Amino acid sequence: SSRTIALLSQLEKINLDSVVGESDHARYVTSKILHLVQSQEKTRKEMTSKGSTGIEVILSTLEVKFSNFCGYRFIAALHFMVMKCGGRRASVLVTKGGTQILLQLLLTASKDSPPNEELMVLLHTLLAKIGPKDKKIGMKARINGALNISLNLVKHNLQNHRLVLPCLQVLRVYSTNSVNAVSLGKNGVVELMFKIIGPFSKRNTSLMKVALDTLAALLKSKTNARRAVDRGYVQVLLTIYVDWHRHDSRHRYMLIRKGVLQCIKSVTNIKLGRKAFIDANGMKILYNTSQECLAVRTLDPLVNTSSLIMRKCFPKNRLPLPTIKSAFHFQLPVIPSSGPVAQLYNLPPDVDDVVDESDDNDDGETESEIETETDDDKDQHFKNDDIETDIDKLKPRQELGRPIEELKMYEHFFPELLEDFQEWDLVSKEPKPFVPDTNLSGPIVVPTASVE
User: Where is the segment annotated Disordered (predicted)?
Assistant: First the structure.
């Protein structure tokens, strides 16, 4: 009955038409729908309300592959509805299969030379908005071949911040998938992020914030972290953090400083990263900057993150510490004469005796294997066969400090440990066998004995 429903009905008829291309009538309908969506809140609510088929009709129209004019109008309409109606409409768009259609449109639009900048900005902005609502968007982008489109746009348009910003937002969504992070790292995305964050500058701080978040997600991959360490980027991150700490005297850019710390935290998850952090004097840098941040309450997130990094990177030693690093020196009560514990305590003081297995696992797992393991962990509870259940084996064997013969001299001090206390029968003058009383709930009965 409304104007919107009539336009959607006409659009459905156009979709059923076998004519390929864009007609004047299709141009008129798409322009009118875009105008109503942008100008009337009633139209937006009507198209996104429960039970409405407005979004489905628009998505099915985009699958027909009209020219860029119609596609741009519908993408703009979807973008306007998602931005104005909130995240709930983004979830509706995902459930209707919008992610797959938008990725396919992105792949199609990237084949144009040069690609339509307005269309690319709208597509990336829309994908960045609905990406967190779709857990499979990273896998879908990799299967469709759209993974490197955003990366190539950033490489060739570093000075075009209007286009780079939504592309980085999409890369941030892609990087949450470990397989995508490794693939993007092989194509030079880590080096590209360091070109964007660069030295201290208050221009385009929003772009730098997104770039730091993307870099922190990428460095969670051990392969990318090793690549960053090999290229000396740990020292670069510390230099950037010190620059922002010195220039941000009014603490307006705390999120950027925290983003740099998140990158350092990610790269120090591996042993090489922790070693590079210590070699770059990172402990002293973070300690001094944290001391200066203690007086400002709003900078507590920086102090907390710095503390986590320093605790993680501080050298680990066994206890008790038989070296000059320890203020106390004591010995364990029982140290076996042989075995792995004895081998540890026989090592010289300067040998690292703490096993670090953080670099043992590579990023060789595929996404399907990870998902299968996650589903299996939810459905089944596996028994750990490595856990020892024999109590006798778990008890340590302690050897007495003196032989038993020397301890017999103390028997007269503890007679209760030697005497055999038993209840005697007054009639038979013999020990009475102990019989437990099973009638505990009844009254207490005191037996009487006759004495001859």
Answer: 349-400, 432-452
> Does this model's pTM top 0.70?
no
| pLDDT tens readout for residues 416-452 | 777 665 666 666 666 666 555 545 444 544 444 444 4
Of the candidates 266, 260, 210, 270, the residue with the CA atom closest to the CA atom of residue 237: 260
Residue 177 CB coordination number (10 Å): 23
Q: What's the burial of 243, exposed, middle or buried (CB within 10 Å: 0-12/13-18/19+)?
A: middle
Cα within 13 Å of Cα(65), Cβ side = 8
Cis peptide leading into residue 320 (ω within 30°): yes
> Which residue type, as a one-letter code, is found at position 274?
R
